Amino acid sequence: MILYSWLATYWRPFTDGIDVAVAIPALAISVIAWLRSRAKRARRGSSVAPTWTDGLPWIALLALLSGLEIASYLSSPRRSHPTVSSLADPTMGVHPGRAGLFAVWLAVGLYLAYGPGMRRRG
Question: How far apart are the C-alpha atoms of 54 and 121, rounded to whole Å?
Answer without folding.
Answer: 30
